[in-house]
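User: Please predict the structure of the protein below. I'd like the answer in structure-token form so I can feed it into my own downstream comparison script.

Assistant: Understood. Taking the following sequence of 127 residues as input:
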Amino acid sequence: QVQLVESGGGLVQPGGSLRLTCATSGRTFSSYAMGWFRQAPGKEREFVAAISWTGRSTYGKDSVRGRFTVSRDNAKNTVYLQLNSLKPEDTAVYYCAADSRRFYSGSAYAEPDFALWGQGTQVTVSS
């Protein structure tokens, strides 16, 4: 059974950093793009960043570009989200997800495109 397991969340002060990890199993991980989403209290889940199946292309929400970096290690079946210069408005549950489109190389990523989801990891930015 395919599983996505996030880790690395926690409480951090504004301006701080965290690295989120998403470990996968049970699937040909390297053939699929991976994405990160987040859901803040009382808000809809939103796209944060995605990385193509090759790892050569990354995409990010405007408000996190330059602060968040998505990467992957296909040999370890793992995807990462480096969070820098964190702000209180980044507080949310962060989810990793696997795209359902094998070998997809485009730039369009939306929640319905992602078939598999992790359980989420809480990131809280507060002083």
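That's the full token string. The mean pLDDT is 94.
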